[in-house]
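Structure representation:
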Amino acid sequence: MILPDDILNARILMVDDQPYNIALLRMILKEAGYTNLESTTDSREALPLYQAHVPDIVLLDLQMPHLDGFGVMAQLREIEGDIIPVLVLTAETDPEVRYRALKSGARDFLNKPFDKIETLSRIRNLIEVNLQHKRILAHNEELEQKVMDRTLELRNTQLEIIHRLGHAAEYKDNETGYHIIRMSLYCGLMGQAMGLSAEEVETLRRASPMHDVGKIGIPDRVLLKPGKLDADEWSIMKTHAAIGADLLSGSNSPLIQVASIIALTHHEKWDGSGYPRGLKGGEIPLTGRICAVCDVFDALTSERPYKKAWTVEDTMTELRAGSGRHFDPELVAVFETILPQVLSIRQQYQED
């Protein structure tokens, strides 16, 4: 609701090259209780005054030297768009001039010489319309902010669930929380180096911690066996890729969708000898190929109860040996270029 005080406190800018007209309008408005009045008789000052005071209404003469009212409206449209709160002051009766003024952004006309009652009525009406428009815009902005806040909250909740799922898999395995942190950061670096967009890199980084979530479904007698797995046990172990993809399937979230793809394909091999589907070369999604390189690098360079940590040199020799067989050759080459950054992350997130 627009209150009387809102009307009387509205900011009014008057632009007319005749001092008499400015003085008359100022007198009429002050007597009616309006308080925020700015004016100029030089149309070249209209834009700076508008920007300084952001008026709720502009009382604008059309016929002025230097810059006429049409020129002023053109300047205002550049900063406000098509909706500018202009009340044209004119003695012009030519319909074509009035049509042009309306097309230029004028909202109404106030005829010269001024009639007090008409002047106050037209000014009040236009102020009410403009204030209501501003309130609607402010309300819409508030709603948009609430939607953004809610979206961020949902995204953060989603990310928390993702990380908890990743940790749930760790409780069933010999991996650690540092492994998924390092691996996800390595994947982000690889994505950047491969030219993925910032959004794609962020999605890859957020989704990759769930690559082994399917291990939740692997029996402890297999998952936690200290020695080498036999053929039957290895067949069971390999099902974790499909289990993980199934756990993450059916989501509308792009993040979960990528996580499902990674879970399913990070054990596929470039030569087609991987699992679970035996995909080959470019048939393997890029996210799965990236995750394969990063996962193997971190697994080999990390100490586990059943093995010693490999040196970086031996690990890189293994990656190079697997280029074109296990790994995408391009990705192995890219990984070498980001190795200094990878080692920095590895140093930052060492095992306890």
